[in-house]
Design brief:
alpha/beta, Rossmann fold, Helicase, Ruva Protein, domain 3, 2 domains, 13 helices, 11 strands
Amino acid sequence: MKTQTEFLKLRTHLEQQIIGQKKLLDRLLISILTGGHILLEGAPGLAKTTAINTLASGVHAGFQRIQFTPDLMPGDLTGIDIFDPETHQFKFVNGPIFHEIVLADEINRAPPKVQSALLEAMAEHQVTVGGVTRKLPDLFVVMATQNPLEQSGTYPLPEAQLDRFLLHIKLDYPTPEEELEILKLDRKLHYGEDRETIQSQLTPDTVLTARREVADIHVDEMLEKYIVSLITATRHLGEWHKDWSDYLVAGASPRASIALLRAASAMAYIKGRDYVIPEDILEVAPDVLRHRLILDYSAMAANISADNIIQHLLSVIPIP
């Protein structure tokens, strides 16, 4: 598949330009290939914005970064109707949400009304202003960030909105060897060398073609049953660990099964295959599930996290 080859080239280029964040780059490509939104959690300085901007350039898509703040209004996101004194009529001015790739920086700093407007965009690919509904670009995806170190002045995202994110990715610091490479690259850029231009044939239209190819990736029925087993196990945790039976208020919904299948298919695609293997599912399962499990206070008191529960289920449920 020609489009798949172009994505493999893009993946290689991104790895050369964004050092030490291979996991992030793979998840960004999965987001583009599935149309799924992603939530990035990590300390400042881990190249989140640079990676997303570089990806947008690679697929020649419109990119917009929106800084979420407590004083942000829904109209600042969606756009507003402005009165034109020449025509004596109101005309709609598009907001920054009308781009193909939107970076919602520090998403949890915006108040509930802004989150409500964003949720409509994420769920329905449309916004409604003044009673008029307007469609967003076909490629539209939200890539949001939140800082795990600073929670003052933030609004926890509601479960309904969290469930709309395909993946929740936790980023870590690069290794010492990777950080040394980052220093060398920064030194070149600091002294006037431009970041290498991406020679990519990808466009929004070819990305939409790639999404159809991802949907056609072969998934064996045994793997589909394995996905369902993983998801349903989160709703009956006590059957897989008797001491943790009360640790979850709610498990993952059927949307998680769909998300896991799509993410695994996209992972196979960017690795150059036209079929899914169990390792694809195992690799993306934590990112698909960690924001969909609602923990009870007893789990927090026992210092058990969503990641602990996911890793346990992955270790005890038989792999096909």
